[in-house]
Specification:
Elements: E1 5-14, E2 21-24, H1 38-51, H2 56-60, E3 63-67, H3 73-84, H4 93-96, H5 103-112, E4 118-121, H6 127-140, E5 147-156, E6 183-193, E7 205-218, H7 228-236, E8 239-244, E9 247-257
Parallel strand pairs: 3-4, 3-5
Antiparallel strand pairs: 1-2, 1-6, 1-7, 5-6, 7-9, 8-9
Helix pairs in contact: 1-5
Length: 258
């Protein structure tokens, strides 16, 4: 099958940016307190705003494809610190259960009521774009009726070596104002699917290209979790985005306005 793939809505959140939330979805932002972490709460709020109005029948079989460079590093550090506190007498079971890169993605599927595939990709700087490509492939082959794709990054600003800082380009017409916070959350989520989705808004753009290829760059020690190129790409709603993951893989996306 070769079903056309369309972009219906997208949302971006960055706790170090003002405004924190960007994008176009079908619903307004509603903050809901859940028995989880701040980052997972924000991800669920963003996904609910993105998917507002999507029929339960479509949600049921929809897939979730998320890229992450930092994975569960933030929670790994929290758990590791708990193992050394008070001579290691009280390691935190709650922190331990979050030491998997797929934890937030799993919480998203439960909160949204998704029962399709859930896949988390780690491909260096290309992680989020690889997730978009894979989600588009599932749509193109008729394997899911709808997909949420994108990237989620959570880290502590004090991590030695640092993570490449994100920024907001002038093209997005937004002024970035850094905030003091020990934890940084950055995410981009997009809703993609075939044409004529029941209950969905008119698609914004069509993915005329979504593919992966090899790269000669192998630099796995370089940590770059910037999601801004993907944000700028979605803001424009058209054009081409090519990201080299620096781990032997390169990803291409191309959008054309409807």
């Amino acid at each position: 099958m070769n079903i056309p793939v369309y972009l219906y809505a997208w949302i971006s959140l960055d706790t170090s940016r003002t405004p924190q939330v960007l994008g176009w979805g079908s619903g307004s932002w509603q903050a809901v307190e859940r028995p989880t972490t701040k980052a997972a709460n924000l991800a669920c709020d963003a996904a609910q705003a993105l998917m507002a109005g999507v029929a339960p029948t479509l949600r049921d079989g929809s897939g979730l494809f998320i890229g992450t460079t930092t994975g569960s590093l933030h929670d790994d550090i929290i758990f590791d610190n708990s193992r050394t506190t008070d001579g290691g007498q009280y390691p935190s079971p709650n922190a331990f259960r979050r030491t998997l890169p797929s934890t937030i993605a799993t919480e998203l599927t439960m909160d949204l009521g998704l029962h399709g595939p859930v896949v988390v990709y780690a491909a260096g700087a290309a992680s989020a774009v690889v997730a978009c490509v894979r989600g588009a492939e599932y749509i193109r082959r008729g394997m899911v009726p709808l997909a949420i794709v994108g990237g989620i990054e959570v880290w502590n600003e004090a991590i030695p070596g640092g993570i490449a800082p994100a920024h907001v380009s002038a093209d997005a017409a937004i002024t970035a104002q850094p905030q003091v916070s020990p934890e940084r959350c950055q995410m981009v989520l997009a809703c993609i699917g075939p044409a004529e989705l029941p209950g969905a808004p008119r698609p914004m753009s069509e993915f005329t290209q979504a593919r992966l290829g090899g790269s000669n760059i192998h630099s796995p020690t370089t940590v770059n979790c910037r999601l801004q190129p993907l944000v700028d790409f979605l803001v424009a709603g058209q054009g081409q985005l090519v990201v080299d993951g620096a781990v032997g893989i390169k990803a291409w996306l191309e959008l054309q306005r409807r």
